Amino acid sequence: MKTPILRRAILAGVLATTAIAPVIAPMPAYAQFGGIVYDPTNYAQNVLTAARSLQQINNQIQQIQHQATSLINEARNLTSLPFSSLQQLQQQVRQTQQLLSEAQRIAYDVQDIQQVFNGRYKGSALTGDHAQMVANANARWEDSVGAFQDALQVQAGVVGNIEGARTTMDSLVSASQSATGALQATQAGNQLLALQSQQLADLTAAVAAQGRAQALQSARQAAEEAEGRERFRRFMGN
């Protein structure tokens, strides 16, 4: 009695397993949730594509930032120096030139010098009569005194320019140290060179004025010696 019943139970279990088996078959790679199809593989690819796009955008942003920085640096390098000492330096040079142009009796001119020397320092000017010799001697003395006065005036003008040169130099050095770009630094350096040129011009003017005075003094002494010999010759001849 128990054996047939056991067999029927086993057979019923097998049939039940067979009927349920199609229901628990493997699920596909996607599923439906409320009518929406979810594909994990496609979702992963979309996430990866979005990440790559975001990285490209970040790279482009960095390139734009680098380009903007480069443009800013170029703009700084092309910015002009707001300070210019050219007008002040030119004014100081003109002042020195004005002092030189006011030279007394004998100007800084080759033809004028030649004419004066022929009339008072050599040749027939040293062999004239007594009155002519006295007049030429007085003229030569006035030439020397005027030249020394001119030299002192030029030297005073050069000394007066020292304070202006110091102020200009301080401004240019400060501008050079605070320069925001290559152009400003270059312009500050050029103006410092212009300041040195102005100082060299003052030095040249002072040396020229002093040399002129010494040359006229030496010429006067030489003329007096020549005139003295002429007087002695005349005295011995008489």
Structure in words:
There is one protein chain. By secondary structure, the protein is mainly alpha-helical. The protein folds into two domains: 31-77; 86-237, no CATH class. It has helices at 2-20, 40-77, 86-101, 110-120, 130-177, 182-237; strands at residues 31-33, 36-38. It has a two-stranded antiparallel ribbon. The longest helix has 56 residues, at 182-237. Residues 18-27 have low confidence and may be disordered.
From the alpha carbons, calculate the radius of gyration and give it in angstroms: 53 Å
Secondary-structure class: mainly alpha
Provide the β-strand percentage band. under 5%
- What is the CA-CA span between the terminal residues? 195 Å
Integer count of domains = 2
Approximate helicity band: over 70%
- Shape, please? rod-shaped
Question: If you average the pLDDT, what whole number results?
Answer: 81
Multimeric organization: single chain
Number of helices: 6
In total, how many beta strands?
Answer: 2
Order of neighbouring strands in the sheet with most strands: 1-2
Uncertain runs: 18-27
The helix-strand sequence is HEEHHHHH
Main β-sheet description: 2 strands, antiparallel
SSE topology sketch:
Elements: H1 2-20, E1 31-33, E2 36-38, H2 40-77, H3 86-101, H4 110-120, H5 130-177, H6 182-237
Antiparallel strand pairs: 1-2
Helix pairs in contact: 3-5, 3-6, 5-6
